[in-house]
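Re: weekly structure request thread

Next one in the queue (128 aa):
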Amino acid sequence: MTNSNHKLTVGLLRKLLSGYPLSMEVTFGATKFNKRPLFYYRFKVRGEKLIQLELSELEPGSEDISECEGRITVKTLLDGVKGLENDWEIVLGSSNDCAPLVFDSITPIVAFNIVQPKEPRYRIEDKA
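Done, posted below.
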């Protein structure tokens, strides 16, 4: 579902997520310009009836976490706004390069969770 005015409220989030199982994984995709995966960090109250959904960005060369490991569930998102009234606005922060992040839509996806059973013998950048 696309949100044409780009304003996300607690009520809209609850409505958009109401048809999904609580155990369904959530991904935030990647930043548009530097293509880095975004991960849930936390919700933080920023003002009167204003809460921020803080996302972290995977830094280049970071091997601490994969996109699959960084996923949360629908339940995590709903727990983050528990007790808040539906008219609270949810804003997003910005990417590491200070470009604003703006809510557009929630889209169900099918994810292929891929594993590598063996450590690679070399990396592409090692061959140069």
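The two ends are 45 Å apart (CA to CA). Residues 10-17 form the longest helix (8 residues).
Next request, please.
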